[in-house]
Amino acid sequence: MNQAWKLESFLDAIVMELDKARETLAIKAVNKPLNYAVKDLAIELQTFPTYDGDDVRFVTAQPGQTGASKISVQLGSITDQQVRATSKEPPSKSDVQIADAKIEPSMKNELRKLGVTSVSDLERIDRENIDLAKVPERNLDPGAIANLIRQRSRDRTPPVIKRATLSRAADGRRRLTLSGQALALSAEHQPEAVVDGRQQRVVRAAPDAIEVELDAAAEAHGARDVVLALDPYCVLRVELKSSQVGAR
Amino acid sequence: MSSKRREPKYLDLGELIVAYATPPEPLLAVQPDGESCRMRPTAVSLTSPVELEIRVDSSGRVELASAPPLYDVDTSFRPVFQRLTLEVDVTLSSEEAR
User: Fold this and answer.
1) Residue B56 pLDDT exceeds 60
2) Contact flag A14-B64 (C-beta cutoff 8 Å)
3) Is the Cβ of A7 closer than 8 Å to some Cβ of chain B?
4) Tens digits of residue pLDDT in A78-104
5) Cβ distance of B79 and A33 shorter than 8 Å
6) Does the pLDDT at position B1 exceed 70?
7) Beta strands in chain A (DSSP E)
């Protein structure tokens, strides 16, 4: 029984086989006066296509079957410069692939159909001022798209904590100040702080410092484990040791 | 990959391409009027019917195997042949060109 396959997987398989052939021919050329290089390859297939609403799949015709469609695949040869000029840049290590993003599978499919494979693609579209939510019949959640872009943007500016200080305010309460870079960056979100498992009040939030007022229990405990939700895209955990906390 | 065993007649498509892309040696040498001359191919163009076995594993990955037509017998049900076209460039190796 023939199995159904996707055109993308079929092309991957052809390219892999062609690469293997090229490598073998290159080795053979070492001891031969003539070099043989596959310049073009074309395959015509007798197939029956099906569409399940998401993907088109093909089954090759079997003996005795008539009425098959013909697909012709042609692979030409181009230089590496032409590849660079006509292809998207390969994904970087820090880029998030849509396949790995935490969004609904149906939305992943819709984005794939629009040729969007990474969050970098979404950023590029956003820079062009294109509103994907208005693309007809695609049902793309604008909130989820914005979240992916903001998450990527936050990943590029990770928070840095350089110093932790314990001090006492005028009202006698202890305050923990964490100083550094890229801490509170969002004007829309107020950072939240949990110290040793108890939520504490953030009294000041700025890009270079977060100031947390400690209640009596946290003060007594010594404030060792601090979890900061700086915004919806950045949560960090800090473990403080006594030598790192400068008491004033 | 599928647990079904591949028939012995099938080769990896890459092996078939190598077989097709390598013309037989030696180069043709002729001696008209006592003078020798060497001939070499500069390009190979081939179009052939092939049987193609397309296997798909559970992750959707495709594996291709192929076979040239083995029998020239007019049976009631003929194998389904796909058409493979190859254009091969032939160049002299740098040592030979010198």
Assistant:
1) yes
2) yes
3) no
4) 888 887 888 777 778 778 888 888 888
5) no
6) no
7) 5-6, 34-51, 56-60, 69-75, 160-168, 174-181, 192-195, 198-206, 209-213, 225-231, 234-239, 245-247
